[in-house]
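user: can you give me the structure for this one chain? tokens are fine.
assistant: on it. calling the predictor now.
[tool input]
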Amino acid sequence: MQLSREELLRAYRQMKTIREFEERLHVEITTGEIAGFTHLYAGQEAVAVGVCENLNDSDYIISTHRGHGHCIAKGCDVKGMMKEIYGRKDGLCGGKGGSMHIADVSKGMLGANGIVGGGPPIALGAAMAAKIDGTGAVSVAFGGDGSCNQGTVFEAMNMAVVLQSPIIFVFENNGYSEHTGADYAVGSGDIAGRAAGFGMPAACGDGSDFFEVHAMTREAVERARDGGGPTTLEFKTTRFFGHFEGDPQRYRAKDEVKKHRETMDALKIFRDKVTKAKLLTKKAMDEIDAEVLKLIDEAVEEARAAPPPTPDDLLTDVYISYEGGIQ
């Protein structure tokens, strides 16, 4: 299926926004104004956008500790995200979640998750609810290669197959589970192949190629909406920064990141493909670049100026209030 010009421009804008959001955070974190751990998503943009461009607001995603890219790709407000990371009252979660716990239920973004492997059971619950309610919604559980060995993930996969739930398990294999190589930690060396053993379709693709990610996800989403049950997608990708900000990355080979920035940059690959195919012009994408940089500048400035939560906010948003129930 050929994407329209508008769809291609949107996809490029989303990937560029993720890249600049993360590159700017890499700089701002050194100022000491941002508290807590931050895990940057730069390098993996094609996965988040390639997946989420097949979804709508009624579909669900569960993210990971490396979740900024998923949030932006699902449509979360960039300025609200930046305020959240800065711990401001006007952040998407009132400044209480920070980098690893951003959520926006109105966009189907059910939350980032600091627990490795903690997302798939939640995403499965959302998928089961969608199936029972007959909404036609699909749920996506994002995870890294490190999460693929967690028992919670295996249990969610098995139940998804048994109940034929409309869920897609997306593994972003960036080569490292924190500091441990996936080639060591994954016994079979094949995350998608192992997932197929649960009885669901599974495939592995190039996580640096938006078009490959998009096409593979489209097939999985259509299958889920049509009652065909779950799918697992593994995408080989890379991260341009450490596991967390401040990670010395001594486990990586010399010039590894430099090489990956040259050969696995999702934005460069996208630009090269669409210009060669005469689908988009360099000028149109350059204009988006300028607009995105302006947006990120504004997001940082507004976050710095925004007020933090007050002591009165401490006990708010702790319990869900059910109509007619205990509050």
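assistant: here you go. The mean pLDDT is 94. The beta strands are 60-62, 139-144, 167-173, 176-177, 180-181, 202-206, 231-236.
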